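Checked the freezer inventory, then went back to the computational side. Two predictions to log before the end of the day. The first one is the construct we discussed on Monday; recording sequence and tokens without edits.
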Amino acid sequence: MLTVRDAERADRAQAIAALTLAFADDPVLRWLVPPERDARVHATLIAEAGRVQVADVDGRIGGTCLWIDQRNAPSPWRELAGLPRWLWALGPRIGRGSRLMSAFARAHPPRPYLYLGTVGAAIRGQGIGSALIRSGLEDYSGTAYLESSKEENLAIYERFGFRVTERIDLPDGGPPVWPMVRPATA
């Protein structure tokens, strides 16, 4: 049975493992870091997310979704405090990570909005990703935003009301990314 719930501290290792498996072939992650750094990147993303949801499939974590409330701009102090985590995660690719975040920041909608930072299902084709997105959006009527790193996933997000706003070609020969916005619903 599939149940979506807020993650607990005890879920952390399985949540990281689910994201690591789900994003093993992700073009942006492969451009950003070598595979041996994947778990560090996902651990850092989880540490910085405002809300972490997991899909519990018969007692095992089958997927993870990270939501970040963007009502207000993050304080410079909070961003500075997160820098050691990102240095640990990205290592010598920290400059590339900075260019990635700059490219993404220009595409974000005006505040306030809910940012779907990451959704990944360790088991594909079972509706886990959709269940996670549905759960995160069900009580939220404001603007929501995400970046899709795979063109084939655009249709999934469109079912939830997201629309592509542009295509970003990442620097240094990086892959394309599609920012998507779901307008506020009255």
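The second is the one RB wanted added to the comparison set:
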Amino acid sequence: MFVSLTNLVAETGYDVPGDMTLNDLLALCSAELFGTEVPPSKMATLKDGKLLANPSQTLEALGVQAGDVLLVRMLSAAPQTLQTSAPHQSQPSSSPSASIANNPRITELIKSIKVPPSKKPNLLRENARKIYQLMENPAQRAHIYFKAKPLVDQYTKDPKDFEAFVRVYEHMIQQEIEKARLMSDPASVEGQRLIQEQIQLENINYSYAQALEHTPEAYIPVHMLYIKMEINGHPVKAFVDSGKFVMVIIFCLET
């Protein structure tokens, strides 16, 4: 079964058997996710917002299925304040959300996640202007289209309206910040959905880029050349294949 793993910065995936332990999977992916070897004991793994508390168990025993996306975070040293609780604290609820909120490891995990701060308006405007200037180049505009379609749509609608372009850019940044906030919350089902959606989108973009490189004729217009001629007294239209077509064009240009 294929399982995807992410730490909200990098993603990876493996085709693994169900009897593989979570510890083995973490040891396999740590270098790709964090750029260095990290002991499994220093990582926490969540599935659908729930901590997989016993990494020595097999993936099948932990309920991991094909197509699942696991959130992996590196744990820091637990602060002493996590070991104490208020005297008047009520009894923990038996609901999953309450058990997550009262779990010290989850509390530590949530505190370790940092949501990127909002950029200052001046910096946003400066970045928007740089992208706006790149839009003048059709090749750059085509490249930006795959990453920021709303910006290209706005520029195509009115290339001279820079203020509208800035507003669209600011709205996109706000959406990304909100998405990062949701994805940084391990207890958020919506955040887990966004992570899986992002991984699927990146896989689609990769497949599209590979197809565009190796079979471009499937994505671009193809002009066909026909020539009127006569065979045995019968008028026909002969189709010229692409190789001869190129030769005809070159000959026309030379003459």
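For RB: Residues 189-214 form the longest helix (26 residues). Confidence is low (pLDDT under 50) at residues 77-101, 113-120. Let me know if you want it refolded.
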